[in-house]
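Aim 2 progress update. The chain analyzed this quarter is reproduced below.
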Amino acid sequence: MRVIVVGGGKVGFFLTMTLIENGHDVHIIESDQIRCATLADRLDIPVIMGDGTSIEKLMEADTENADAFIAVTGRDEDNLIACQLAKMRFNVDKTIARVNNPKNIEVMKALDVGYPVSSTKLISELIEQEVNSAGMKLLASISGKGAISQITIPKGAEIDGLPLSKIHLPSECLIVSVIRKERLIIPRGDTLVLAGDEILAVSTNAKRKNLVKILTKMR
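Predicted structure tokens:
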């Protein structure tokens, strides 16, 4: 997914690293020249130097083609304006704003910022939940070490029509249930997995990506 990050401080840097590791295409906008050079050197991604509330800079970052827009500067006002511009001027559906002062959360909600949040961890979880291109939704985090995920089996998947006993999952993953045409199935070894099924699975964070790859790999 194409993600625009405004703000290249500590929050923006570590968030961008997480997004890159999860396979997202990230562009970052940062106003400080020295910080821009550091980001470009360490992350090897497009870095735009300038104000994230500037339409010109948002255009330079190709915001109109972004799937998600995240503003994580140290100024709530800038994060609000940047998200409003992304949503209203560039029609970005999913916008997320870092809130440094918790008192501003309700204000941002009232002004239609998609997701005002005050934690880097929450931001990264929202990204995984809302814009993951592999058909996976993160439903819950388990003590920061594991996750409950929902994966939709795509048409043409290698595992379409296979029983669970024939699908080799990592040992740290467990399929909990299968939802098929609104019917809940408690899976057993002979339960067939079909295209369109919604799989509910528990996994460690380290193996979640492997789980998604196995369940969504195409023929």
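Residues 171 and 203 are 9 Å apart (CA to CA). The radius of gyration is 19 Å. These observations will guide the mutagenesis experiments scheduled for the next reporting period.
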